[in-house]
Structure formats: structure tokens, C-alpha cells
Amino acid sequence: MVMYSFQLKNFEEWLAGLAGRMNVSVKDRLLTIPAQWGSGTIHAHNVNAHLSYAVMNFKLGCDLEFHRESGAAGFVISFNMVEVQKELLVGHRQQFVTDKRPFRNDIFLTDARDSAYLRISAGSNVRRLLIFCSHELAMQYLPREIFDKLTVFARENSISEHPLFINLSHRTMLKELFEMKENDPLSPIRMLSGIIHLAEKFLHSFLRQEQAALPRTVKKNDLESMQHVEHILSSRLEGFPSLESLAHEVFMSTSKLKNLFKQVYGHTLYDYYNKARLQRAKDLLITGQCSIKQAGSEIGFSNLSHFAKAFRKEFGILPRDLVKGR
To answer: What pTM was estimated for this model as a whole?
Structure first.
């Protein structure tokens, strides 16, 4: 087991401390996980004295414990896409929750001045983006009323009762960050742009939630069920699962499933599935992994013209024009 206790001031300093705990060095702000602990990388960067981030993309070969002690005055936004092998143990200000969901796709806000604890079990695949923003920087750009609400939320509601969920838009941007090439000369600019965009989307989501109080109108178990359905729709792109099979997965009626999913994610089940599979096809075409016909077939389109029509409706461009501009 790796146990790491720290006071968060910025993520480059945090990464250096973790590297020391693993007896490895950080090279160009990148830590490569040693084989005895797992595989993958963690990248950290201080944009300035008030803003820093860490991008985690690794698989654990042993249990990992993070103990955050009281640190700098600032917010930490955590975007989590974790395939949990056994369980997660999450703690905040001496409150602990054991989470045995196989997939953790959510967003949390904490105050770096508060203690926090996270234990991830061996075998888990961890993809996380952590953003630190000082209170001083936040106060420069946010109205005092919003800053105060964020502060209260970060200190009182951040353990797991009312998370914000990662939706398709978050997932697409996070995927680009996790798969960004370190040797790309434009990667620092592209990464910072994506991180700022995600932080803005979080703020907008928080304000909508605060106004609508959505998580307080939906039971926690139902929210977790919707997250499970979202994972199915985002990962099984070769054909839309039947409504009955999805309802069976989460032990609820089809009508309740349809209504809840639309309430939580803002799209119907099929619309969400369709957007996810078209985004998958777009990714395949941008990276040159397959032809237009193969991309359409990969996501369940047997008719090339139907695929092109759906693609243009979603992205405003035909697949062939996207390939030409690659």
C-alpha cells in the first residue's frame, strides 16, 4: 500500500512529494508510476501562484491512500472517472463513506483548508483531473455572493451526498486531456484551455443546481442508478440497449427511468446514446484510426448515408469534410 499525507499548496509540490514517497523522480512535471505500484502517469503544472492542476491516468497495482491535511486557502475541483476494483473510501472533515459502485463518474468541490481522505483499491483504473484555485483568484472573478455559496458548498456538501455527474460534454473534454501527447508542442496551451473550460462548466452546473436544488429532489440511490445507466449508454455504442433491459439493470419501471434520466442529464436516453456514439465516431476519424465506413459501422450504422446525415446534424460537418481537414 502507498500512503501519502500532504498539505496542498499547489500540484507541482504535491507531485514532488508523491514521487518521493514512491522513490522515483518527476521529469518535466510528469511522474511515471513505478511498476511495483501500478502503471500510468500523473502530470502536474502550476499555471501561476494561484492556479494549478494535476492529470491522473493510471492503473493501481496496490491500494493507494491520500491524506490531505489543512492547506492553502483555495478550492479543489475533482473530476473523477474511476473504474473501481473493490471499493473507494472517501473522507471529508472526519466523515467517511464507503463507495462500492464499480464506476465513479462525478465531480466534487472541496476546500483545501479542510482535511480529506481517499483510499482507492488495487486494480482500479484511475482517471482524475484535479484543479486548485486560490480563494484570492476566485474572489477576483466571482461576485461575492457566488464565492460565499461556493465556500459553503465546498465545506458542507463535498463528501458524496450530492455530487455533480460527469456528462457527455465533460467526458469528451476529459478524454482529450487524458489522451493528450506530452510531446505535442501545443499540449500545454490545449490542456490549459480545456481545464479552464471544464472549470467554467462546473461553475455553470453548480449555479443551475443551486437554483434548481436538483440533487435534493432525487434520491441518492436513484442518482447512482442514473449514473450506471449513463455509463452503459456511453460505453455500449454498437447498438442502443432496449429500454426494458436498462430498466432491469437499475430495478425500476421504464417510465421512471425515462423521466429520471432526462431530469438528471438533460437528454432522453436515446439522444444521450446517439450523441455518445457519434462523438466516438468523430474521435476515430480525427485520430485516423479507421475509414468513414469503418467508423460508421463501429457505432452501429450499416448505411453510410444515414451515418453521414446523423453526423452532420450533430456536428454541422460531413465526415468526409472532417477527414479532409485532418
So the answer is: 0.80
Nearest residue to 127 via CA among 87, 82, 96:
82
For the chain, which domains are there? 2-163 (2.60.120.10), 220-324 (1.10.10.60)
How much is the pLDDT for 97?
A: 79
Q: Which of 244, 249, 216 is closest to 231 using CA atoms?
A: 249
pLDDT at 215: 44
> Which residues pair with residue 135 across a beta bridge?
none
What pLDDT sits at residue 209? Answer: 64
What pLDDT is recorded for position 98?
82
Q: What is the pLDDT of residue 216?
A: 47
Closest CA to 187 of 57, 50, 290, 45: 45
What single-letter amino acid sits at 187? S
Residue type for 108, please?
F
Q: 219: number of CA atoms within 13 Å, CB side?
A: 4
Neighbour-count burial for 255-272, b at 16+ CB within 10 Å, e otherwise: eebbebbeebbebebeeb
Residues in the chain, pLDDT under 70: 93, 157-163, 182-183, 185-186, 209-217, 325-326
